[in-house]
């Protein structure tokens, strides 16, 4: 008797027999029947990754695509996208999980060893890298945030992490600074400000200017 697969298409008896033979052969080499049956799961994972990577590619090009545009680019049906991701927030969460490992080091709370200038220079370099790697995705999140609780949460978590990093890296220097000066530091190092300035200056020019401005602020006391 034929066993239906998960798509509802009957598996021919001959194919079923071949599957059993192949499974037995693999088992003799240390593999299990599950390795065979997991092939469908692997295909599903490849399909999910194709959608994630394609969507990120389109977002990085400055466009927030519709499901129809993603499907056309991937060469799959819109129905397949909904099978992988039941809604846009599920896709956004998967994209975030793909992007975050690429930028996690940029948000490290542990300051590096070194004097004040070297710490400032390191943080400026990491904040510029953060914008280079994640700014297109972040802008998509920003545009989605008014209608998406998940996107709004992403933004709030990013802001809080960046502020926490500033507090940890310059704990001693921030003591005695006026709240307005701390706010200016936070603004100078924000992704929004750096993203805007990169439209006018190259990264080296921008980095040097930021280091100089931040050093001036951190070395003054109220």
From TrEMBL:
Residues 45-103 form the HTH tetR-type domain. Keywords: DNA-binding, Transcription, Transcription regulation. SUPFAM superfamilies: Homeodomain-like. The keyword tRNA-binding does not apply. The keyword DNA-binding applies. Gene3D superfamilies: Tetracycline Repressor, domain 2. GO terms for molecular function: DNA-binding transcription factor activity; transcription cis-regulatory region binding. PROSITE patterns: HTH_TETR_2 (PS50977). PANTHER family: HTH-TYPE TRANSCRIPTIONAL REGULATOR BETI, HTH-TYPE TRANSCRIPTIONAL REGULATOR RUTR. This is Unannotated protein. It comes from freshwater metagenome.
